[in-house]
Amino acid sequence: MTPLAEILRPKNLDEYIGQQHLIGSGAVLRTLIESGNIPSMIFWGPPGIGKTTLAMIISNTLHRPFHTLSAISSGVKEVREVINAAQEEEGAILFIDEIHRFNKAQQDSLLGAVERGTITLIGATTENPSFEVISALLSRCQVYVLKEFDENDMRQLIASAVNYYATQGISVEVKEDEALMRISGGDARKLLNAIELVIHRNNQNSTNNHNIPIIIDNTNVTTVIQQNLAFYDKQGEMHYDIISAFIKSMRGSDPNGAVYWLARMIAGGEDPLFIARRMLIFASEDIGNANPNALLLANATFDAVNKIGYPECRINLSQCACYLACSAKSNATYMALNNAEMAVKRYGDLPVPLHIRNAPTKLMKNLGYGDGYKYAHNYSDNQSSNLLGGFAEQEYLPQGLEGSKFYDPGNTPRENDTRTSLRTRWGQKYGY
Predict the structure, then answer these.
(1) pLDDT tens column, 38-75
(2) 69 φ/ψ angles, rounded to the nearest 5 degrees
(3) Do 18 and 147 meet the contact criterion of CB atoms below 8 Å apart?
(4) Cis peptide bond upstream of 213, omega within 30
């Protein structure tokens, strides 16, 4: 039985929902498609937002041969087979789903064909291509960022599903859609799968009276989906939900929850480097300077996983997950950067104060660059004002931001020591 998501897959740009910043009238990608001259490209965005569909539409619109590979199940051999076939074709497109899962050698195998124009590569990834795609391949591709669906997009999809079932003689009435929105989280595939499950379950329980509409409301959706979570797991639809549960368990200092969700990912065949990478991010985002050793262990775990691989590396993952879960937590450094970025966005490129500018030339020195700068190490013996050694008070922020506090240490033993140190140095300037 063909899934609803496949039945409703759009066939052309006019049917395509969302991504109007790319394929709307006059948008950059639509203009390229209409010109018939497309570059190799990488679609970067969350799951279920139409990356594969857009690649297929491009091929259909341009009447190009279309080859597709999944990086999960394909390797250099399959890539070379497609390249050999493409040499006999005109303008062949190779679509690679989850291209971030290709290792360096596999990505290298694409370079020659992309550079010669034997194939036009379209890669799809949920991971930042700056980190996951080798620079040589990335430089030959245009990266397009796809956005998750908003509520208006999702309601268009719901309406499409209702209209389809009407053509099948099944009346559907959507009275509430909040649960559908919440469960799908901007993922069209999850949304349509949820609708399909609800319709299927209600059809099974009905008396086959098609004159009575199937009601979709929050209670109905929640009940059916909770009873079918295993179905979603087997289909890979819970991938991002499970990594979210894993992260939240560590953030909540529960090693039991963390190791359970880790086991679920291992059982599902998740990429171990994906798990290790998430823990590496977590170590700075959620622990930070409350325990700097967390970042060291997470980095060592990433290296170990890269060297060892499954199945043994699951032991390294478990050690790190339990350590991170049990560690003191602080997002102070993460919030400090967010606060500073907000100031940059609000105030723009404020000039660097003259006294902390570099002065490598005579002209710069004559203009006052570096004048009045206090070299902190020259004050290492300054005890007269009860300051810590190697400190001289001066302004490091640009004019207009003097005294702005972006970093506020958390309430952990290590960070309380940091707060005391900052207060000793800066007094009340920053309110420490």
Answers:
(1) 999 999 998 889 999 999 999 999 999 999 998 877 88
(2) -130, 150
(3) yes
(4) no
Cα distances from 270 to residues 100, 157, 260, 262, 367, in angstroms, run 13, 29, 14, 9, 58
Token pair belonging to 199 = 């319709």
What's the pLDDT tens digit per position in 266-294? 887 788 998 999 999 999 999 999 999 99
Q: Look at strands 214-216 and 172-174 and give their pairing.
A: parallel
Q: Three-class SS of residue 125?
A: strand
**Centroid of chain to Cα 153:** 20
Residue type, 209: N
Tell me the residue type at 31.
T
Place of tokens 């880790």: 262
Cα–Cα distance measured from residue 248 to residue 60, given in angstroms and rounded to the nearest whole number: 42
> Which residue's entry shows tokens 């399909």?
196
97 strand-pairing partners:
70, 124
Is residue 300 classed as helix, strand or coil in its secondary structure?
Answer: helix
- Count Cα neighbours of 333 within 13 Å in the Cβ-side half-sphere: 17
Residue 384 CB neighbours (<10 A) = 6
